[in-house]
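On clarity, I found the account of how folds are encoded harder to follow than it need be. An entry of this sort, consisting of the sequence and the corresponding backbone structure tokens, reads as follows:
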Amino acid sequence: MGSSPDIGTLESDYVACGFDALPGWAEDDHLAAFRAFLRSCPAHAVRIARTIHGPLPFQEALALGADIRPDEARKFFETHFEPFCRQAPRVQGFVTGYYEPILLGALERSDRFNVPVYGLPTDLVPLESEVFRAANNDKVTARRRRGSEMVDYFTRAEIENGALEGRGLELLYVGDWVELFFMHVQGSGRVQLDDGSWVRLSFAGKNGHPYTSIAKVLVEKNELSANEIDMARLKAWLRAAPERGRRLLQENKSYIFFRILTGVEGSGGPLGAEGVTLTPGRSLAIDPVCTPLGCPVYVAADRLLAECGRPFARLMVGQDVGSAIRGPERGDIFWGTGDAAGEFAGSTRHQATFFLLLPKR
């Protein structure tokens, strides 16, 4: 099982670099970053989260509240934190993007909506924490009871071929295998039902099999080149020959189960692994073995253009995790909900530099 860096074991890997070393720090929207950080505070205020350098100042942020000036937000970070970067030699960082897709669906099965979205099965027995699923992605992390023995849980292919039918696990139905698969990859989704109402789905667990990138499989098979592959091309390849596409999807044995968010919990946006609502452009999926959840992380990627058209350089907050997000020089930007966010997410594959903002001693 993974563990977060709360006992100083990684301290020798980092070196203080000062705010002057952060490209575009003065021009950033510090208030937007502060409000994203503030969302993490209630989850940690009682149980103070510790980093490799000390406890994060959640109580101090809560005392200020959301209605402060931008200069006060900047002062908060500069007063309570110090930027750190990985010491040389360091590998080049890499940033990707994810989003909350929108699907069409229905609560009852029909000819149009016949692809089930499953809730968490009762016979699924987790062996590891889902928070550390990237660190554990090379092994089976959940199993199921079969009589007196424990066996691997059903694979994606087995589930899609009916292994869970008749158990009442269907939350709703959608009409597109491809879109459902990408909702699995993103970890959340909004579904507009056929009566016009909306449902927000959140990650509830996975079947325990390692995640396999189908994009990487296509590159290895020389079907698409690494330089040209993105979400749009991947979806087009899958739909060009549906049976071939289904076989490729099933090479990823991992399968995601969801839960429906209701009331206030589902009104503001999708939830990250930290249990707080994600903020578009400010929430970052990180590897919690290297970076504590709730920790501010400054991300600079010269070749990634932000929504404003300028190179991406922004203070974010580690509020989520992902099976493919592994190591200290890796991050996944949450871009928001819907097609426009999906376009950003699908094209975000850039080298980046990561700076941890750790509490001052």
Remarks:
- Residues 99 and 340 are 9 Å apart (CA to CA).
- Residues 6-10 have pLDDT under 50 and may be disordered.
- The chain has two domains: 11-96+269-359, 100-266.
